[in-house]
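Order emerges. As here.
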Amino acid sequence: MEEPDPTVVQVVDSEAPAGGEVLLDLEDESVLSVEPGAAMGSTMAFQGRLTNAAGAPLNGSYSIRLALYDVATGGTPLCQDTDTTTVTNGLFTFQMEYCTSAMLDGTLLYLGVKVGADAEMTPRQAIRPVPYARGLQPGAVINQISTTSRALTVQSAGPGSSGTALRVENTNATGGIGVWSTVAGNDAARGLAPSTSTTP
């Protein structure tokens, strides 16, 4: 089996200029294959192209490790996954697991790629969000302009505390507000700490 050149795992980057080499094509295939009513899951699908030093596409099975970092160089992976991956005419798909929603909190992340015993490739690739994913990043505002439908519905069918549909927590040790709502110009605080002002 031919050994890959670690500098030429190429992936498609939607922001690359026309004719530029692709280094990362990230798509969440769970969105494409999920059954109605099924949980989305946390698997992320990456597609890439693996070549040798001469640029020829490789074939065979290779141990590939993908890791997500919150820094462009150095640091410790937030999560990582290693699988023996089939490469056909240079192309492969990698289903990355072990990354939780707490790690994907809107912070800019970087993908590190490692093949076999080779060192991790450089540079790491920045993970860019798909447009609608931006609606769930910290500080996002959900604005429903329709007067006939809800802006947000949160439901849970689980029992007891494990079935909590929505948990709101303010972790400020000196005081804070859990939920602040305004309806028809009237304000109402919920989960108000004793030392906290009622002014929003």
In short: The longest strand covers residues 60-69. The longest helix spans residues 29-33. Residues 9-133 form a domain with the Immunoglobulin-like fold (CATH 2.60.40). Residues 5-9, 11-36 have pLDDT under 50 and may be disordered.
